[in-house]
């Protein structure tokens, strides 16, 4: 199985670095979205194995986007990992309490990103 990852982040550079790490290092498939609206459209089209969701985005932040995605048909079963620059324990606990599978701190290492995702989701490491 080749995992398909949806990266949702308003910063083009973050999406590009994550894409490079996931595609070139791990051989995974990637779809990008720059907003909650784009993420919802992508989920309806590609049905990702996991969503990497930025916490701090304009218009709709990560928790609001998570709520939007969960409301989609089949959205309740989506595997979601938050991406955040705020890596304090209290913030990570608050985000996990929203029902996501884990939290990855920014900046992340693109060379180990696939392994980090796999570890949080209980998948075999690439």
Automatic annotation (TrEMBL):
Domain Response regulatory: 4-121
UniProt-listed InterPro entries: Bact_response_regulator, CheY-like_superfamily, Sig_transdc_resp-reg_receiver
Alphabetic keyword roster: Phosphoprotein
Pfam families reported for this sequence: Response_reg
4-aspartylphosphate modified-residue sites: 54
Domain of life: Bacteria
One record GO biological process: phosphorelay signal transduction system
PROSITE patterns recorded: RESPONSE_REGULATORY (PS50110)
PANTHER family given in the database record: RESPONSE REGULATORY DOMAIN-CONTAINING PROTEIN, STRESS RESPONSE REGULATOR PROTEIN 1
Designated name of the protein: Response regulator
Native source organism of the sequence: Egicoccus halophilus
Lineage, opening ranks: Bacteria, Bacillati, Actinomycetota, Nitriliruptoria, Egicoccales
């Amino acid at each position: 199985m080749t995992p398909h990852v949806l990266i949702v982040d308003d910063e083009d550079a973050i999406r590009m670095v994550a894409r490079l790490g996931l595609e070139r290092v791990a051989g995974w498939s990637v779809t990008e979205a720059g907003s909650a609206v784009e993420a919802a459209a992508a989920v309806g089209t590609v049905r990702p194995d996991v969503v990497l969701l930025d916490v701090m985005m304009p218009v709709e932040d990560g928790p609001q986007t998570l709520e939007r995605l969960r409301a989609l048909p089949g959205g309740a079963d989506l595997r979601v990992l938050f991406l955040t620059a705020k890596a304090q324990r209290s913030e990570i606990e608050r985000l996990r309490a929203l029902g996501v599978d884990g939290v990855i701190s920014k900046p992340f290492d693109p060379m180990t990103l696939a392994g980090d995702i796999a570890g949080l989701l209980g998948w075999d490491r690439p």
